[in-house]
Structure formats: C-alpha cells, structure tokens
Design a protein that fits this description.
- The chain is an all-alpha fold and 136 residues long.
- It has 2 domains: 1-56; 57-136, Orthogonal Bundle (N-utilizing Substance Protein B Homolog, Chain A), CATH 1.10.940.10.
- Helix content is 76%, strand content 0%.
- The chain is built from 7 helices and no strands.
- Helix 1 (4-22) packs across helix 2 and helix 2 packs antiparallel against helix 3 (41-56).
- It is globular.
- The mean pLDDT is 89.
C-alpha cells in the first residue's frame, strides 16, 4: 500500500500533465483527478497543493532545471520528466521533506510514468540541484 504522500505526488504529476497538455487551470483539471483519487480527499488536497506550488513558481523552477541539466535545453526535456523535476525542486525548496526522500520519490515517479532513462536523468538533475541549494 502506497503512502498518501506518494499518491499525492503521482496525482500532482498527472494534474500538471493535464494542465500542460490541455492548457487548463489546475482547478478545471482536478475534476477528473477527483475520480482517480476516490474517497481520499487528503490525496487530492495534497496533489492540488503541490501542483499549485509548481505552477506558481514555474519560471524559477525551470531556470534551476536549465542550470542543472547539462547539454539539455528545457524545450528538449519531455513534459513528464520536466514536471517530475519541477515537483522535486519545489519540494526541495520547501524543505519540509528530507531531500533523499524527495529524490527517491521523484525517481519512483520516473519509473512509473517516464521512459527507461527517466529515473537516472531525474536522479542526476535533482541531486545536483539539492547540492546547489545546500540540502545535501
């Protein structure tokens, strides 16, 4: 059984993806997400809070990704991978969750939703950012 925080991260990623693909606001995309979360409002609330935090600070998060992803322009990074990185950086910057947990959870999201090289890419970028932020 997955922890509520893990499910909230996965749902936040799905919410961010839906917003990116459809161009809709998080509130509009959350309707379908509520059906996925079922009777657990804490998962939906956590997902909405994470997604809102990422969307509110997306430009700064993208600058950090650009600085840490050697030889990768932000436009070349896939939507799923970019949103996993944004979520991870957002949580690293909040400082509530231990950095190793943030990175492990982002790698898990990469395994679930990304391609075969996503976990390694996410690990490398988030490790570099965590170190630059003084979190590791």
């Amino acid at each position: 059984m997955l922890r509520i925080e893990t499910r909230a991260r996965a749902r936040a990623l799905q919410l961010l993806y839906a917003c990116e693909v459809t161009g809709s606001a998080p509130v509009e995309a959350a309707g379908g997400l509520a059906r996925l979360t079922g009777p657990q409002p804490r998962v939906l609330d956590g997902a909405e809070a994470l997604a809102a935090g990422v969307l509110a600070d997306r430009e700064a998060l993208d600058r950090l990704v650009q600085g840490a992803a050697d030889n990768w322009r932000i436009e070349r990074i896939g939507i799923v991978e970019l949103n996993i990185l944004r979520l991870g950086i957002h949580e690293l910057r909040l400082g509530v969750t231990p950095p190793k947990v943030v990175i492990d959870e982002a790698i898990r999201l990469g395994r679930w939703f990304g391609g075969p090289k996503t976990p390694g890419f996410v690990n490398g970028v988030l490790d570099r950012i965590a170190r630059s932020l003084g979190r590791l």
